[in-house]
Amino acid sequence: MSATAAPPQAPAPAEPPVHRPALRKKLVPYWLLLPGIVWLLVFFVLPMAYQASTSVQTGSLEEGFQVTWHFRTYWDALTEYYPQFLRSLLYAGTATALCLLLGYPLAYLIAFKAGRWRNLLLVLVIAPFFTSFLIRTLAWKTILADGGPVVGALNTIGFLDVTSWLGMTEGDRVLATPLAVVCGLTYNFLPFMILPLYTSLERIDTRLHEAAGDLYATPATTFRKVTFPLSMPGVVSGTLLTFIPASGDYVNAELLGSTDTRMIGNVIQSQYLRILDYPTAAALSFILMAVVLVMVTIYIRRAGTEDLV
Amino acid sequence: MTDNTAGGDVRLAGISKHYGTFTAVHPLDLTIPQGSFFALLGASGCGKTTTLRMIAGLEEPSTGTVSLGDRDVTQLPPYKRPVNTVFQSYALFPHMDIFENIAFGLRRRGIKSVKKQVDEMIELVQLGEHTRKKPHQLSGGQQQRVAVARALINHPQVLLLDEPLGALDLKLRRQMQLELKRIQTEVGITFVHVTHDQEEAMTMADTVAVMNAGRVEQLGAPAELYENPRTTFVANFLGTSNLIEASVESAGDDVVVSAAGTALRLPAARCSTTPRSGGKLLVGVRPEKISLVPAEEEHTVGAGRNKITGTIADSSFIGVSTQFVVDSAVCPELEVYVQNIERDARLVPGARVVLHWNPEHTFGLDAAQDIDAGVETVEESA
User: Fold this and answer.
1) What 3-state class would DSSP assign to A284?
2) What is the topology of this protein in the membrane according to its UniProt annotation (chain A) (predicted)?
3) How many other β-carbons are positioned within 10 Å of the β-carbon of residue A118?
4) Interface residue of B79, B81, B83, B161 to substitute, partner A, most A CBs within 10 Å
């Protein structure tokens, strides 16, 4: 190697190895994002845009639909179907509250008391997913059948008197009443409540319980001041995962309810598939989305989860 | 709960703890005097934390009773005991700020105006500017101080500290040791401190109980334990000891033993067992008690001192002292710490040397025990 050739050559190969891997590294996150972004673009953003345009079209199936910026569809849809909207929010809210009441103790038990049974119990929580949603809901039709053992038992203990006073049942029937729909919703969305609750409870260091007890907190106060506040992220995500799909659900109302228990999901479904009034169906979908979005935003603000660790 | 006047001794009577067939703590009797700084020292798994948790009420003893003063608290749940704990991981409430963490105990006891007390406590642990921060925004040392403040504000009869300095680095640990000692002197509450760090136990505590395998091996003031270990475990776990297997030549007030032809003497008063002529005895001496001279200067060693000849196998310079390992027929690998006052250039590996020490500094242990007990556990925790 000659001394004269070395200086001009040396800096050239020395620099690129420093920069190229750094650039490649910077691009890695984008490459990892790409499949997800493409998927969302094709199957979420495009259909949304298509639905948005449908919602401001007018016309009929025979003559075809044109974009006429007919925003009145939204107003008409809202004024015509607001009972179904309110009913949806009421049923979904009731089902969410029931899920929380039923799911919290169970998630607590699995997280803190189950010991070696923990995994088995978790499998049991998701076991219903091994059968189809539809079949499970149809099974509830049998469970709640008129004159069946469940309805009989509920009647005997006077439960149905309470629910009919609340306007959730009529006479000694459960099927085709609001109670049946709420029961179905609760049952179907319960795992979506339990799993996030479990995850956030399980993350709580049990030594915090000991510390609270050591600092004169009774078990009840420990729950109120330590366990429950620390499980708020789970409560928030669990209620959202239950409430949002429940408010748009139509299967439970369709199979377990009657015409008096129609939820907004049933209206949208029939507008799309039976009446074939696509603009109204699309407008209803967007209204539902907006309502849920506003409610969720307020809820998250109120719950103040951003303050939690 | 603020009553920490006379009769506040912690008394454990025959308490034990079994987990299935495993015995974590063997029946134990212990009295921790009111106002003392008491350390439970031992390697991990020796039962020291279990003992502490039984005092706190976080663990139910299998047998025996826990009393605070004249009150039997064995059946009381933790939230009814006038005892507070500083947990190993601090266990600060992550969703509350420092003020609320410290006020927690007061609020639970229905005290409404907590501000003054909390501020005083924050002052005591020097966390003034962090009042409204969340625990995760503080450093380990600061979190540790919050944990201490949160417990101390309740003026417990006893403060239990479960390895509270374990997660801190060495320098901070030394600082916190002094801090805790200062706070203890200031508030005068009984502190029960669990640790595996023998230096920490000795610097902080008035009384140290050395635990091994679910039993208290020895209990006493740090200097007493160090100078007069009664078992090989204590001799090895607390500092370092040279233990020499020897046979007893003559027993009396002055015991003469021999090991590999070398005669050594020690006072009978410093034997934890009664030496019998012809019997065996483990003779111990601390490394810093031994002096070292080159073999050719043997004549300078005073008469009446215990002498062993050997060869330096290794030496390491530590700064304040030099640590020598000396091989001899009496005992392989004798450790000798020599202060670096005047360094003798002749004391290098391979040199023939004479080790000598005052017979008064020798202690005798029962030979029927494992000579290496407590040795590995020290290395493990270091």
Assistant:
1) helix
2) Multi-pass membrane protein
3) 16
4) B79
**Each residue of B224-266: pLDDT tens digit?**
999 999 999 999 999 899 999 999 998 888 899 999 888 999 9
Our CA-based measurement puts residue B137 at a distance from the nearest CA of chain A, in whole angstroms, of 11
- Out of A208, A221, A307, closest to residue B93 by CB: A208
CB pair distance less than 8 Å for A217 and B58: no
- Inter-residue long-range contacts of A62-67, CB under 8 Å, 24+ positions, other chains counted: A65/A278, A65/A279
Domain-embedded: residue A77: yes
Question: What are the tens digits of pLDDT across the range A216-238?
Answer: 999 999 999 999 999 999 999 99
- pTM, full prediction: 0.81
Position B376 confidence tier, pLDDT thresholds 50, 70, 90:
low
Nearest CA to A261 out of A273, A245, A250 is that of A250
3-state secondary structure of B110: coil
Phi, psi of A218 (to 5 degrees): -70, 165
- Could you count the other beta carbons within 10 Å of the beta carbon of residue B41? 29
- Residue B268, C-beta contacts closer than 8 angstroms, at least 6 positions apart: B251, B252, B253, B254, B255, B274, B275, B364
Mutate to test the interface with A, among B52, B55, B80, B93 (most CBs of A within 10 A): B93
Q: Return the ∠ at Cα B119 (arms to B117 and B125), rounded to 5°.
A: 105
What interhelical angle do A72-108 and A278-303 show, nearest 10? Answer: 40
pLDDT tens for B89-141 read 899 999 999 999 999 999 999 998 999 999 999 988 888 889 999 999 999 88
Residue range of the domain that includes A277: 73-307
Contact check, Cβ <8 Å, A216/B154? yes
Element (H, E) at B67: strand B63-68
Could you report the predicted ipTM of this complex, rounded to two decimals?
0.81
Domains and CATH numbers, chain B: 10-227 (3.40.50.300), 232-381 (2.40.50.100)
Cross-sheet strand order for the sheet of B306-317: B291-294, B352-357, B306-317, B321-327, B334-339
Residues A259 and A179 in one domain: yes
Q: What are phi and psi of B353, to 5 degrees?
A: -140, 165
